[in-house]
Amino acid sequence: MVKTQPGVLAASLEKTMKPKMKIFQDLGISANDIAQIISNDSSSLYRSADNRFTPSLSVLKRFLGSSAEVAKVLKISGWFLKLDLKKTLVPNIEFLKSCGVGMDQIVKQIYNFPRFLLHSPEDMKKFVKKVDEMGASRSSRLFIHAVRVVSSMTDENWELKLKHFSDLGFSEDDILKMFKKSPPVFAVSHRKLKEVKEVLLATEKYDISCIVNDPTSFVCSVEKKIKPRMQVLGILDSRNLIKKWPSLATITRMPECKFLEKFVQPYLNEVGEVYMATSALSSERNKKIGIK
Fold this sequence. Notes:
Layout: H1 13-26, H2 31-40, H3 49-64, H4 67-76, H5 89-98, H6 103-112, H7 121-133, H8 143-151, H9 155-167, H10 172-181, H11 190-202, H12 208-213, H13 222-238, H14 248-253, H15 256-264, H16 268-278, H17 283-288
Helix pairs in contact: 2-4, 7-8, 13-16
InterPro entries: MTERF, MTERF_sf
Protein name: Mitochondrial transcription termination factor family protein
Pfam families: mTERF
């Protein structure tokens, strides 16, 4: 606290410190949680107890259901005590609900991307409008992820992102299709987009249309997933040990245990050492599949 907010040493114990601590205590938040919340963002101590602290905590408890969950969120981000939630979080939640987004999905965003729901209501409406224009369906569970991704960029950066896809050879229809299938892909850096595309096309087993149909490949780790699996499949294919090269969805979505079971364990002599050397397997998991 002293490192980030030295002025706390001069703060009034009776007027600044104790009233905030008491509000947390009255809400049932443990001493350990209070210590972590305050030490993570001690500037919250200077917020008005009546105009900011109490109303914000009340709003959070209404949406999250318990003091324990409120503490959990505040340990993740102190922004909920900095802004007027009745003018940001509350109207944004109500607006998203009116768009068909379920409360369960909204609550997940509070934990995973706390700043997302603290935009101004005017901006939130602009984000939703842009997502609507991209053709995303409000009935899809991906809709809120699309809105969140759009909210993370300025208009200029968004246009630059679309240009990056275009420069990589994707048509406007391809871009719209990928956005509707996997919005998080649009938060991936240009460098990684280019790298994934080059690695996949270099196999000569996949083309642009394959990537468009399974854009989640862009969020996969190139070094830990895509390259090791491609290398294994390449060896098996060259030795005629697989009848058909698997779809891109198999490469990107198949859990590691399933991939090991189908493509590595039956061919340990051929690909075991290669996969161990190029993948992120732990020594314990190597033992499980018989690799020393």
